[in-house]
Structures are given as C-alpha cells and as structure tokens.
Specification:
Blueprint (H helix, E strand, L loop, with lengths): L2 H30 L8 H25 L8 H14 L6 H22 L3 H26 L1
Length: 145
C-alpha cells in the first residue's frame, strides 16, 4: 500500500475515534451532571484534525519503522493532551483530558476487536467500560449532590 494512503487511513481512523470519543464524553458528562465545555463544531473539528494528525503520523511511524516501540506513543499522547489543554485552557482540567483519552482508547480497542473478529473481546470491553463508567457516575453524583 502506498505511504500516503496508509497515512490518510490512519488519520481518518484517528479523527473518527477522537470525534466519537468527544461526542460520547459530552453525552456521558451531561448524564452525570458535569459540563464539558466544547467550542463550535468547526473549532473542535480543527483541534481534532490537528490532534488526530499527530496521532496518525506517530502511529504510522511506529507501525512502519519500529513495531516493537509501542511505548514511544506516550510522547505524541502528551503532545495531543497539551493541544487539548491549550485549546480548552480555561474550560477543561486534567480529568477531562484523561477521560477523553480513555474514551478514545476504549473505542479504538473495541474497533480493533471488531475488525479482527474478536466479538467476545469487544463485548467484554464494552461491558467492563460500562461498569467502570457506572461506578464513576455514582461517585460523581454522590460528590455533586
């Protein structure tokens, strides 16, 4: 496969997972009574596009050149966290950024499990993540009220 096609594919997948994570995080935060301040759709798309490009390029570099260096992806994750912190400087705290990455990682793991036909693993990921979110929601409601 051509390098540009691979990179654009990674970018699309990263953008879709980041956008879906933002959407689901916004829904989850509204359910538990927390307010996730988001910019306009265009501004969020620009931030997600830049962040997902960084994720895609770093994932492509690791997969293509050093497949055993998955731990190196912590550096682009920190860069993306810094981008979101700068973009939402007054609105978001560290918990919001952490939850965004957790949602994106779970969505990515779920998608990979489905893609490779591991449906039991995908269901386990969803059930465990749902249970963890329910516990977090219970604590958040108790602390808030």
């Amino acid at each position: 496969m051509h390098v540009a096609v691979q990179l654009v594919t990674y970018w699309c997948l990263a953008f879709l997972s980041l956008g879906a994570a933002l959407l689901l995080l916004n829904i989850y935060f509204s359910i538990i009574g927390n307010d996730l301040e988001l910019r306009s759709l265009g501004a969020e798309a620009v931030v997600a596009g830049i962040a997902s490009l960084i994720e895609a390029v770093s994932a492509w570099l690791v997969v293509t050149f050093v497949p055993g260096a998955g731990r190196a992806l912590i550096i682009p994750a920190l860069i993306v966290a810094l981008i979101y912190k700068i973009a939402h400087f007054e609105d978001w705290d560290r918990f919001d950024i952490f939850m965004l990455f957790v949602f994106q990682i779970v969505l990515g793991a779920f998608g990979v499990a489905l893609f490779f036909g591991h449906f039991e693993t995908a269901i386990i990921i969803l059930v465990c993540f749902g249970a963890i979110l329910a516990v977090v929601a219970a604590f958040a409601r108790d602390l808030g009220g």
